[in-house]
Design a protein that fits this description.
With 226 residues, the protein is mainly beta. It is built from 1 helix and 19 strands.
Length: 226
């Protein structure tokens, strides 16, 4: 596990050295109110779809890719200056961390996220050629065919004095949470909180972003960082 984590970190460092950005989450932010997604990184390439402003996407560079373009959601290419990075918003301070929990507080936001050991007796596990491919009917993220050791247990979130409920299906398919790779950002203008985490390691690595708007959970986005 430590070796796989090392390889994942080496991947990110190598991207930085090559002038590539670290994979991450962003919002569409274009003066026209939408952005064209093109089949290839060229203004002359076919438009395959449009993304409206404020839509949450996962973007990253590809090796050798033209510097003005980003790959969005593994679907197509958009201009680099048509997004606003989630990590550009105000960072909410980390206030505590232990082996199975992490806490953040600030801007009238209080968040504590806990994990627990994975108990296979409490789950319906399906195998295919000896590899785990379904847990409780869903494709698991954060693992690479093996049984997970840890899973999320609870999201305790209070915003402006009110409890925010994160439904279980927003995290029940995510495994191997890594507390020290978690951050919280706050978009004050739109009163929106973003919880960003990296889970798993090696070939099972995955990134996830939960979006909470005006104290109400809106959506979750995942992305594979390679």
């Amino acid at each position: 596990m430590k070796r796989n984590l090392y390889l994942f970190l080496l991947f990110l460092i190598s991207n930085y050295a090559l002038g590539q950005i670290e994979p991450g989450f962003a919002l569409v932010n274009d003066k026209d109110g939408y952005v064209n997604v093109r089949e290839n990184p060229s203004i002359h390439s076919k438009v395959i779809k449009r993304l409206n402003n404020k839509e949450l996407i996962y973007v990253y560079d590809e090796e050798g890719q033209k510097e003005n373009w980003l790959l969005a959601d593994n679907d197509g290419y958009i201009y680099r200056d048509r997004i606003k990075w989630v990590h550009s918003f105000d960072s909410v301070k980390k206030t505590g961390e232990s082996e199975n929990s992490i806490s953040f507080a600030g801007n009238n936001i209080s968040i504590t996220i806990t994990s627990q050991k994975f108990d296979k007796r409490k789950h319906n596990i399906k195998y295919k050629d000896s590899y785990v491919y379904r847990i409780d009917g869903r494709e698991p993220k954060g693992i690479d065919g093996y049984l997970p050791k840890y899973e999320y247990k609870d999201f305790d979130i209070t915003i402006n004095g009110k409890k925010t409920i994160i439904p279980k299906d927003a995290y029940s398919d995510l495994f191997q949470p890594t507390a020290w790779f978690m951050d919280v950002y706050y978009d004050k203008e739109n009163d929106t909180v973003y919880i960003v985490a990296s889970i798993g390691d090696g070939a099972g690595a995955c990134q996830v972003c939960w979006q909470i708007e005006k104290g109400v959970y809106k959506r979750r986005k995942t992305g594979i960082p390679f």
